[in-house]
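so i finally got all the pieces together for this one. its three components total, 814 residues if u count the protein bits. some of the lines might not be protein, just check the labels. i wanna see the whole assembly predicted at once instead of chain by chain like last time, that was a mess tbh
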Amino acid sequence: MTLKASERRRARSATGRAVAINGATLVAHAMRQIHPDVVACYPITPQTIITETFSEFVANGLVQTEFVAVESEHAAMSVCIGSAAAGARTQTATSGPGLALMWELLWVASGSRLPIVMHLCTRALSAPLNILCDHSDVMGARDTGWPILFSEDGQEAYDNAIQAVRVAEHPDVLLPVISTQDGFTITHGIERAEILDDASVRSFVGEYSPHRPLLDVEHPTTYGAWDYHDFYFEHKRQQADAMEKALGVIEAVGQEFGKLSGRSYGLVQPYRLDDAEFAVVVLGSAAGTLRSVVDDLRSRGVKAGMLRVRVLRPFPTKAVAEALAGVKVAAVLDRALAFGAPGGPLFEDVCVALTTNGVGPRLVNYVYGLGGRDTLPAQFLQAFEDIRRIAKGASAQPVVRYLGLRES
Amino acid sequence: MVKTLREMTEQAEGLSSGHSLCAGCAESIIVRQVLHAVGQPVVVACATGCLEIATSRFPTTAWNVPWIHSAFENAASTISGVEAAYRALVRKGRMPEKNIKFVAFGGDGATYDIGLQWLSGALERGHRFIYICLNNEGYMNTGIQRSGATIQGTWTTTTPAGKVVPGKPEWRKDLTAIIAAHHIPYVAQAAAHAWKDLETKVEKAAAVDGPAFINVLSPCTRGWRYDPSKTMEISKLAVETRLWPLFEVENGVWRLTYKSTAPKPVTDWLKSQDRFGHLLRPENEHVVESIQRNVDREWAWLQRQCSLATVTA
Amino acid sequence: MSQDWRKVAPGGTVTEPGSAVTVETGTWRSSRPVVDYDHCVHCMICWVFCPDDCFQTENGKLVGVDYFHCKGCGICAVECPKKCISMQEDVLA
């Protein structure tokens, strides 16, 4: 969504300072400004910068947060669940195997409707061991009941971290939220970005007022009762409902954040899609490279465009279908494999979005960048070449293809 | 000062009737005693297990106090989170200091086995909470399987007494000593029948500024195979046979809190429960001898700890 | 509680403490403890060893047994130091 020029000017004048730091440090600053009551973290590459930087804020008295340096990510999420149920604004951060270790409790947190915020620095999963970026970790959390925001760069990771609090705690949502940034590319990449002033952030996130927390000892509440066949289904339906409502809340919070910062992202970000015949659909940091590829093709007269999906869950089905309605052939880029599935996770979601909305560019799926494999413009140009050939009648088989893979 | 039973009857009950623990279960007896000794305000966390299942059937709860269950292995870190939240909110001026106590309950499966790392981490971090292990020597909620607390020779559904293997082959781990090695302010071993001893220990645990741990033997009528009316008799027998000594480790000082004038042989314990029925057959005599040796060895070790502590104290 | 999924307490929280008292567990019982009050010394051993908190007290005196919840385990009868609690056959209503 776009802001009026006057809104943008007003917003800019109210904001903070320019910095040149990496995405993980930017998110640590967002956490300092949000000033959660409890943060429970365990170090893991490439997330460690967040834990270390936040520890420095604690050590220097810049925050009054209770920082719990736990013995595992499973314990981190356990502490978060106890803390959030107790009535404290609660955050954590992790990567790859750490998120996998938390998996059981991702369901407990969402099922208990606890608005925890997790900063996820995406990383590949073992085996073989790999510490670099792909989206295998977050795809494992895709259906656990957490809204999931993807960032394109450090600035957006910072902006999303702040917005995530409002989304999670919104009374129509009350779900834990994952805000991601791509490991190393964003976490360790130094960029020029803007940090808002502390007061603006604090006022934007506001005070947390939980309903019937554990520490309200005058009104004893039971958390985590066991459901049998008679109520479990109803509770799950409520979660589905909250997830549906989260879409509108993410949009509204984004608009409000735009008025504060001059930066607003929407659910999806179309780039030169208006008259595009060929498009790629992507999550995360590769969008930056793709913009330059699209510009390059446009300069050569190719009607190329890109759709960046910012919100993976709840999936913005309608927005995706609308954005791609006029496209002839689209390539969906997945930075994760879903072994044995018809296609990658994003590919499947886009397929369903188009089918159920009765529109349909032809789709192919590209798996790219696994385990930190470089994502180069030449690879994406290759994808555009392919889909242009498909538009001219070349076969769209195989549906799932690989970019940047060693192949002779 | 330990309250009298009559005084306790005047206090509010933390756990209501209407829960679905088995008739004769020791767990609710222990929980009632613990909550009377701790007093209110209190927040309780439970690991998954018999106690959790039987007391929290949505849309009802047997808990009259704030209560949370998260998962099987993580009661210690869940209560850590509650305690951390309390510290943060008080420090930030968002709630008044209320001297809230924090208690976690877990069975021996949740404590000896699957949750040991979570408990160890929470103890090392020094959260102010009391962890109570309700030790019924097996995974009773899932149908009587062996745990790290099950003793050698015990029949369970994963260590059945067969033609070749006469019950669980291994002894048990000494969890209370493992916890004591964390050098937290208070560690104890207790039993349901010794209510005054348990009350005293819980009151001490509640008074320390840091973590405390009490391992309480919790006889299980279904898993141990005895008549429900015998729960307290069985509990007493565990102490009299020295299978479950009552002691405490207060700021590093080990002390027996009960010493029998006439200790009984472990055969008295084995005879009292049908889970040991096969051990009374002549071909399994060597297992009984081994159990007695293990009990004697642990008792001697405990005696040595207590004498050392007296010297250093 | 309403039949509609929207009305169920979100997250499975229970905001009415001790609401399990509405659950009748006395139906599990095959025999019931009967107290001989003439010999009872109100020591409260039955009270402290009852898994279901079924011994009703007033001002430090034992005044009744809650048969709505008593599961009939018989611990009280075994542990009573005065042997003034007996387990008597329950009759199906």
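Chain B has a mean pLDDT of 97.
Residues 152 and 171 of chain B are 4 Å apart (CA to CA).
anyway lmk what u think
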